[in-house]
Specification:
Elements: H1 2-11, H2 13-23, H3 29-51, H4 58-78
Length: 84
């Protein structure tokens, strides 16, 4: 059950990254990544409160999410969606 919710959340990352890009286009990549992490972290905190589940290693989890966001950005930048 937790895995399916996690995977559904990950599926939303491309849209989140594009939204952050449109809102914070003039900011640095690191600032945009921090904004995306803040949104995801807030969503996870709400999900934790609802499901009473805890992330055992919050730092490791955030680090992993950061790597996933970097991967999504790399995929979007390499795709036809990237503006030249």
């Amino acid at each position: 059950m937790w895995n399916s919710k996690y995977l559904r959340g990950i599926a939303l990352l491309p849209s989140l990254v594009q939204g952050v890009e449109s809102l914070f286009g003039a900011k640095t990549g690191e600032q945009k990544k921090d904004a995306a992490l803040a949104v995801v972290t807030s969503a996870i905190n709400v999900a934790d409160a609802v499901t009473q589940k805890q992330i055992m290693d919050a730092s490791g989890f955030s680090s992993g999410l950061g790597m996933i966001i970097d991967g999504v950005v790399a995929c979007l930048n390499a795709s036809i969606w990237h503006k030249a």
